[in-house]
Write a structure and sequence with these properties.
It contains nine helices and three strands; from the N terminus they run ααααααβββααα. By secondary structure, it is mainly alpha-helical. Helix 1 packs antiparallel against helix 4 and helix 5 packs across helix 6.
Length: about 210
């Protein structure tokens, strides 16, 4: 069964002014679609991998035949990363989290502002294209970054929140000012969705 492009859960202009409508249209309709199309193409003739969830496929990346493995890393990672990215943003988002996620962030990073500072630093300092991540691994939250479309799932980590710092995610509005994009991006975060991911990760459901 082929992987499919999930629809955006909101209109292209829902995240303005933080993220402009044209960037969202290009990012979702062209970039994410290309990842899905190229992932399906890479897995043609490999039926045993076509019916797995994208998370399972990436967790088992070393089992994927070597001649298509990098294409699956690039495009499968792109598909998983972006599917999460759309879900953890919403119109009127932002502010601080609440509940168990907020408690765990405070426990791990001292407070919410320290957490934001550390994650911003991870995202800003990622050389070239990549992501800044909050992941759940080893029973705790961790901040890290990854290159290109590499997925935390490949390293037995569960992505809880991710900031896309590929230039196509922000260049139309912010040009080379990645820190400004990240500052604005915090105003889009759907903390309910992030908290749900955290809860599911702790319960081993994702």
């Amino acid at each position: 069964m082929a992987f499919t492009l999930p629809p955006l859960p909101y209109p292209n202009n829902a995240l303005e002014p933080s993220i402009d409508a044209l960037t969202m249209e290009i990012h979702h309709d062209r970039h994410h679609k290309a990842y899905v199309d190229n992932l399906n193409k890479a897995l043609e003739g490999h039926a045993e991998f076509q019916n797995k969830s994208i998370e399972q496929l990436l967790r088992e990346i070393t089992r994927v035949p070597e001649n298509v493995r990098q294409a699956v890393v690039n495009n499968g990672g792109g598909h998983a990363n972006h599917t999460m990215f759309w879900e953890i943003m919403k119109k009127g988002g932002g502010g601080p989290p609440t509940g168990p996620l907020a408690d765990e962030i405070a426990k791990t990073f001292t407070d919410f502002n320290a957490f934001k500072t550390q994650l911003k630093q991870a995202a800003v300092s990622r050389f070239g294209s990549g992501w800044g991540w909050l992941v759940y691994a080893g029973g705790k939250l961790q901040i890290l970054s990854s290159a290109n479309q590499d997925s935390p799932y490949m390293h037995n980590q569960v992505p809880i929140l991710g900031i896309d710092v590929w230039e196509h995610a922000y260049y139309l509005k912010y040009q080379n000012k990645r820190p400004d994009y990240i500052d604005a991006w915090w105003n889009t975060v759907n903390w309910d969705a992030v908290a749900k991911r955290f809860s599911e990760a702790k319960a081993g459901k994702v």
